[in-house]
UniProtKB/TrEMBL annotation:
Protein's UniProt name: VOC domain-containing protein
Organism: Psophocarpus tetragonolobus (Winged bean)
Domain VOC: 26-151
Pfam families hit by this protein: Glyoxalase (PF00903)
InterPro entries: Glyas_Bleomycin-R_OHBP_Dase, Glyas_Fos-R_dOase_dom, VOC_core
Domain of life according to the entry: Eukaryota
SUPFAM superfamilies: Glyoxalase/Bleomycin resistance protein/Dihydroxybiphenyl dioxygenase (SSF54593)
Amino acid sequence: MQKQEEEMVREEEDIRKEEKEPPLMALNHVSRLCRNVKMSIEFYTKVLGFVLVERPQALDVKGAWLFNYGVGIHLVESKENDQRFPSDTPHLDPHNNHISFQCEDLEAMEKKLKEKDVKYMKRSVDAEDGRTIDQIFFNDPDGFMVEICNCENLKLVPADSLSKLKLPMDRHTPPVETNCNYHDAAL
């Protein structure tokens, strides 16, 4: 009986080894619906420091691509009367859907938000190990929430196996062409 159990365990292990994990590397981009592409470009470049990059001309929707910090934001202009925007935009709830960016200087970010007259909410979360995570929440021009944080203060502890954690060090950023003249083909 014990031999049968051992054989079954080995078969299960073999099956797990044969199952391949998805060949993912990193977050590539976040797509954001917007009412006005130019206004959203201004917000994401001037408030958050993203850079406008070329996008394929074959795309048949009005939009723009932005990139920085190893992640892209793809803006897609909505059709008139689109109902897919957040409805309660003045209310900031940290538990709502949002995109979060790591920040090395929250005071400078807060100053920039004040300069740009962006309404925001601050909060701090005390972690179990005594560290504090500071967060700033605000909305983009279309009501989608953005978080700025010093989340590196929070230790990342895998709940499962550490061997499953993938940390690509050399491939997560797309290649960047540095010596080209950008023309305003995004719109």
